[in-house]
Amino acid sequence: MDITQLILDDHHEQRRRFAMLEQIDSADVTALADIWSRLAVFLEVHAAAEEEIFYPELVKLALAPRPLASAEPETLDAIYDHNEIRDAIAAVRPHLVGSQAWRNAVAAVNVANGDHMAEEEREGLTDFRRRVSLAQRHDLAVRFVTFEARNFAGVRPVDRDPQEYVQEEEAAARSSLAAASLLAGAGAGDGDSPGSLKIGGLKG
Fold this sequence. Notes:
Blueprint: H1 3-23, H2 29-60, H3 71-92, H4 100-122, H5 124-131, H6 134-150, H7 162-183
């Protein structure tokens, strides 16, 4: 397995389900409600799985011996996008299923999600395939599919501050690298080692 392919497979399924909604008559509110409910859960679980498993690994590439300069901005953009998608999903709830207002709100989710997927496929997933071995992508895929299976009924949608997320994941990655260096007898290094994101200096 390959985590980048699993994410692409999820993207294909998300596009397919949005297309289903567009083809169902507005009078069939039961079908619309059931399909949308499942799609909303799917979108939220997918985002949570990426934040739990994929993006922490992408951030680590900024601390690699050959730092990936795009890792930080790509992660910041992704977390911001996830927040937009969650907020758009929440905006669907007040509307009567099948109404024009409901369809407009669902379409807004589709736009936000479509923009995110396109950017992620063009940037983050491509960069990750180029820099990470298939063996590691397989191990991450097992974790990813397990997370989604465990949370099939849904997750609590929580918006996250993009900068705080990257800061936390950078700190965790640096601690992990330091621990690995100690075990190898190479020493922990310092906090301003090459590849440090130095995100604290970013403007809001």
